[in-house]
Amino acid sequence: MRFLTEYLTFNTERERDYINITGQIEAALKKSGIREGMILVSAMHITASVYVNDAEDGLIQDIDEWLERLAPYRDDYRHHRTGETNGDAHLKNLLLHHQVIVPVTDGQLDLGPWQQIYYAEFDGQRRKRVIVKVMGE
């Protein structure tokens, strides 16, 4: 079995952002040379997420509005007593989760017809990383 580990770095201009990283994951797969296996894609921060969904601008706006309704920014989160101001970002992470595992079949990401891999940032404007771990043969 072969393994490849790479790190993607993000520093978004906005507090919340949704970035399609499918191309970067495909590049890591190609570099690894595996034909069968899987790829773990995981945000290394608890105020960001990685998820799989449709690459459609309206849906991305719907996801953002949904997350803001479920975990809105507020000044009164208990977490803010520590001096932080990102309690909502931690809750948004819990809703979308921090990682995905994508199958690799015949040297390709084995995604559905509309599926893409996204990095979601909820507490941006600072440097953050995603680990990409390719495993297979």
From TrEMBL:
Which Pfam family would be a valid example here?
Answer: YjbQ
Q: Which Gene3D superfamilies does the UniProt entry name for this protein?
A: YjbQ-like
Q: Which InterPro entries match?
A: UPF0047_YjbQ-like (IPR001602), YjbQ-like_sf (IPR035917)
User: Where would one find coiled-coil regions in this protein?
Assistant: none
What NCBIfam families would the database entry show? Answer: TIGR00149_YjbQ
Please give the name of this protein. Secondary thiamine-phosphate synthase enzyme YjbQ
Q: What organism is listed for this UniProt entry?
A: Candidatus Methylomirabilis tolerans
